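Task: complex structure prediction.
Instruction: return structure tokens for all chains below.
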Amino acid sequence: MIRMQDIADKLGISKGTVSKALNGTANISEELQKKILETAVEMGYTKKLRRQKDEEQKLCILIDNTEYKAPHQFGYDIILGFRQLAEPAGYTVDVIQVNDKLQKSITYDAFMIQNNYKGSFVIGFSLSTPWMKDFYSSRIPAVLYDNYIPANPSVAYVGIDNTEGMALAVSHLKELGHKNIGYLSAALGSYIMQVRHKSFFQALRQTGLNADYTRARNAYLITECVERHLPKLLDMGVTAIICSHDQLAHAAICQCQQLGYHIPEELSIIGFDDLPFCAYTSPPMTTVRQNRIQIGKSAYCALESLLNHVSIGTLLLHAQLIVRESTSTVKTKHPT
Amino acid sequence: MIRMQDIADKLGISKGTVSKALNGTANISEELQKKILETAVEMGYTKKLRRQKDEEQKLCILIDNTEYKAPHQFGYDIILGFRQLAEPAGYTVDVIQVNDKLQKSITYDAFMIQNNYKGSFVIGFSLSTPWMKDFYSSRIPAVLYDNYIPANPSVAYVGIDNTEGMALAVSHLKELGHKNIGYLSAALGSYIMQVRHKSFFQALRQTGLNADYTRARNAYLITECVERHLPKLLDMGVTAIICSHDQLAHAAICQCQQLGYHIPEELSIIGFDDLPFCAYTSPPMTTVRQNRIQIGKSAYCALESLLNHVSIGTLLLHAQLIVRESTSTVKTKHPT
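Output:
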């Protein structure tokens, strides 16, 4: 195991200076601190468990692109579930919003060592978030919500089984008699949007439905989705649309109603996530639930396993279809 | 929640008789006991947690088709890993060999209720094992090693990430310069053999190698694999063969050597599982490791989550390629 003295020897400085840098003490230059941290990471330094026994045991939740401060926001319950298991187990949990600027100024491992975090739970990173590339070789345990990194024994992926969720949504529509189903999605710049997109076609094929590629459309902006792509799906004569997330499904419901469609009599719409508002849309929305408390709890289980050298790679929760009133059999055909 | 009295009322018998049947007391007829158990399962009866607090907390490991009694056997470490977490947590763990006869005589749920087991860890079931169909609707938590059941919140799948393992094996061979790779497999009657078979082609496509379907061959018997299918792969000019499990890889090494091939100079061979003997074959075998202690530990984590109503569906460990001496660059071509 690499000791502080080894880092000091390599850089030709004192062990005391190395200690200051690794513990984030302020009285050394920022430049020197960065150099020491980078060397520590390069040499594979990780803080000794023995040493940490006398210290506070700290974990962090690194969050980006996700609202979490109020109970109705997506990240709130995920964080709550994590804390519900982590805090009784004796951990302090810090929630840290990490922007691109911070991530470009320091590597993931260096950040974790400097702040004395034993492991992290990472929420809301897109494929282009800077630290995503660090996770391919990082050594400090990280559990990523909805992101998968192959072959690094220190990194796990947790989430719901989106393939199962999509299969439940498509089967539900097929049982209601729908044969012509469309898919409307956010841009495919995140891992999970790619998974849902692929799962949509897989589910169509498995149920024997037409899986022509033109029936899935995506755009970065919700407005572009509903103004540009939704009409094209309607022109194709779809009787049901699955949306990649609830906000988009809600926008699609509103847009279709403005175009004169009756939901669900003329068109069924299904969302993804089951955000709290879904029970209160008009009509209340059928959607695939991500149980966010359970996601948080299972993230803690995965992180605890990684900390104990059980290298979990993937942990998926069962998906659950919540059937409300935005789906039904095709009762009348919209006069196009 | 269904009470014993409800079951008694439905059958028109006393609550005492129901209690006897559910607790496996001997002094009622076998026929009546079966009827009571089946009715209990049908009505969704599960023993109350409150009641069990005063009792022994029992879990079981249900095992079939797998040797486990000696340290070198496949199931030994899996069971050990499970016990290493379950027993300190206060559970008694029974290991039960379950044959088809037992499984056809009683349903899974009825067996669990009758024997007072709170949950099970299931090892070695093929797709045709009788209780496999019970798991689609069972209510008593079950964690299945290497078997996946969709959409039942009481059932989880644990194992290593075979897709990742196969990708590591194919990448390793590609880096060594192999372009013409074959796959030899046990029969596809188990879930995991289907996953590995599919992953082989996926890995070939992802690395840009020829993924012609004739390069994967399977048979029920190892002898049939090596006597009938192996020569066909050699005729196709493969320079490397991946095998679905270590025993098959070892048989393939021996057969090739008898046919005059030098391993690895003329032909590379990779196994799957990393059984203890792999370090001692001639040459020592490159293989994809299933860390069996970790599988057992993660199975316990998954079962504990299910018991706490966190419905884990899939939990996969990172695969690890163990490079030994049965793989190398193609140094000389075998004179065919």
